[in-house]
Amino acid sequence: TSGVGLGDYNEILPYIDLVILDIKHTKPLGYKELTNLEINESEEFIKELNKSNIPVWIRQVIVPGIMDNYEYIDSLINYLYKINNIKRVDFLPFHRLGREKYLSLGLTYPYEDKPEMDKEECNKLYKYFEENYKKELKYAQMEKKIFTRLKNDESETHIAFELIRLVDRTSKTINPISLTDKRMFTDEFRT
Predict the structure, then answer these.
(1) 8-state DSSP, 170
(2) Fewer Cβ within 10 Å of end Cβ, the chain: N or C?
(3) Nearest 5°: phi and psi at 67?
(4) 87, 101, 121: which is closest to 18 by C-alpha?
(5) Which pTM does this prediction carry?
(6) Going by C-beta distance under 8 Å and a sequence separation of 6 or more, which residues neighbour residue 12?
(7) Is pLDDT of 165 > 80?
(8) How many CA atoms lie within 13 A of 67 on its CB side?
(9) Which strands sit side by side in the sheet containing 86-93, from one edge to the other?
(10) 10: closest CA among 42, 40, 45, 56?
(11) Tell me: the pLDDT tens digits for 79-126?
(12) How confident is the model at residue 169 (pLDDT cuts 50, 70, 90)?
């Protein structure tokens, strides 16, 4: 699915045992340019999907000139943190096999100017994704643990040690929150 439907996903999802979710784009403008739709409906589907415990496989078509860069891959990594229970992520190199279907229906093929994606380049992007997704996922899991402790009013000293663990050893910065932000999160959870 692309995650776009007529709503009422909570009625459909109990009958599903696996969701294969195509990510069209991670940003509202890019999503609109590729699909002619707003990203909101897809994000509503993701919210409902997260309430279930259904395994999710992610598919990302890598289109040259749009998704074949590290900036987009980084945005994909951040986008995927919104989705629970991801079991698999696949990168699919863009191909032009759908072109004939568009033409036979009398439609203009929207990717006429796009070449097929080089499979080796797609594999390089996937390796970059794998390395960074796992690393960032670890940070995200630690953050969740810290925020839970903040919410439960655990000792600030213990929480500070957890925050220090978030230090990225290569840049010596805390990712993505800093110690000075801790007070803000503490206050936010207490209100």
Answers:
(1) T
(2) C
(3) -115, 5
(4) 87
(5) 0.70
(6) 5
(7) no
(8) 30
(9) 19-22, 56-62, 86-93
(10) 45
(11) 998 899 999 999 999 999 989 998 999 998 888 999 999 999 999 999
(12) very low
Alpha carbons 155 and 139: distance in angstroms, whole number: 21
Q: Please, are residues 166 and 139 in contact by the beta-carbon 8 Å criterion? A: yes
Q: What DSSP assignment string belongs to 70-127?
A: HHHHHHHHHHHTTSSSEEEEEEEE--STTHHHHHHTTPPPTTTTPPPPPHHHHHHHHH
Q: Which candidate, 100, 114, 24, 30, places its Cα nearest to that of 64?
A: 114
Helix (H, G, I), strand (E, B) or coil at 69: coil
Phi, psi of 90 (to 5 degrees): -120, 140
Longest dimension (CA), the chain: 67
Whole-angstrom CA distances from 159 to 66, 144, 178 are 40, 12, 12
pLDDT for 5 equals 76
